[in-house]
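Record 1 of the preview.
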Amino acid sequence: MKLQDKGLLILDGACGTSIQNMDLPEEVWEGKEGCNELLCVTAPEKMIEMHLSFLEAGADIIETNSFGGTSIVLGEYDLQDRVEEINTAAVNCAREAVKRHGSGWVAGSIGPGTKLPSLGHISVEDLAAAYKEQITALVNAGVDLLIMETAQDILQLKTVLITAREVMEEKKIDLPIMISVTIESTGTMLAGTDIAAAAAVIEPFNVFSFGLNCATGPEDMLSSIRWLSHNWSGRISCLPNQGLPEIVDGKTTYPMKPDAYASELKSFVSEWGVSLAGGCCGTTPEHIAQLKKELTGTTPATREVTS
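->
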């Protein structure tokens, strides 16, 4: 079955949280602690095991460990010359996990980076060049779709969308694109755009899905999901954190248990028509397994889009 033909899809959980929970020897970081993407090269079997744990929990789609895979972010670790190598390795790890599991789709993860054009941190031209390098590597390595996630700046998002379409046009392919923005507790993206304005910018690009991830737990996403249910004609995705983060013994933790997380997301599916559900920060394979259990037999609600 093609990805586009599946009615309800489950995505994986938190890559960063999974890596934090690993017992990794110091040498795999090569002195670049914090650069999770490098682990696709230095500890590929650990990355394969991580992806496989989410597939075995019930995920249909796994995301590559390439969230910070542009030269902009990798440059902060003096790894700007290894973009192709690292992104290719990220796809290879995910593809190997799918091969071992026997099913699943690989989404090339593209993050917002650390420099926002709307705030003058970087020019649109330089941002587009960095994204083109990453997207080209992900596409060449064989992803099934792209997910542009944790978008905080509508100009950044528009730049990456245009760049992705240009890369696919050059290669004469048409991969599905998921768009996931981050709406803060203030009700807007970091640069001030609300969900309606973001939808208006994204709509002409004919994306596979549009939704939310990160920043908050499911409860604080409800108003945006409700708006999308009534106003967005395409698929809706929801990938929440496991509640708002708490600091316990000096470590960031997320309090939401798998049953509560899965129950809330099930209501988003059955009441508001979300058709791609998964997790962001704090989400473990246990959360995804519980989500799979809750969603078995559930059909996304039929929506009446009013605009």
